[in-house]
Design goal:
By secondary structure, this protein is α+β, with helices and mostly antiparallel strands. Helix content is 28%, strand content 35%. The radius of gyration is 16 Å and the shape is flat.
Length: 120
């Protein structure tokens, strides 16, 4: 079963961290990806650019509304994701607990719906 682990943290607090700390978190994430790969659980992972780089698209009454920058008022922003294969929710939650971002923010665990007919 596929799960997406959405990593959320406070971007302002993250930016105040030392470069050494940031590099350490990235190195831990890369190590985790290799550990998951060795067990056949890794599908994909990546950090994302800050929320200020986001573009939101809504379509209402056939018209597109495009908004630059973050729209939702929240203390934590999505920082990245891991797409994993796990036997069940409990295993996905255990993996989420190993994500380095969990130590500075929150990791949201959500099952992925498999849709037939999509490209591989």
């Amino acid at each position: 079963m596929k799960f997406i682990l959405l990593v959320h943290h406070d971007e302002t607090a993250f930016e105040k961290m030392s470069e050494e700390t940031k590099r350490g978190l990235l190195a831990e994430s890369i190590r985790l990806c290799h550990q998951l790969e060795a067990k056949g659980e890794y599908l994909h992972a990546s950090p994302v650019h800050p929320a200020a780089t986001a573009t939101l698209v809504q379509v209402r009454d056939g018209r597109s509304l495009v908004t630059d920058g973050p729209f939702i008022e929240t203390r934590e922003q999505m920082a990245g994701y891991f797409l994993i294969e796990a036997k069940d929710r409990e295993e996905a939650v255990a993996i989420a607990g190993r994500v380095p971002g969990a130590s500075i923010g929150t990791v949201e665990v959500r099952p992925v719906i498999e849709v037939a007919g999509l490209p591989e």
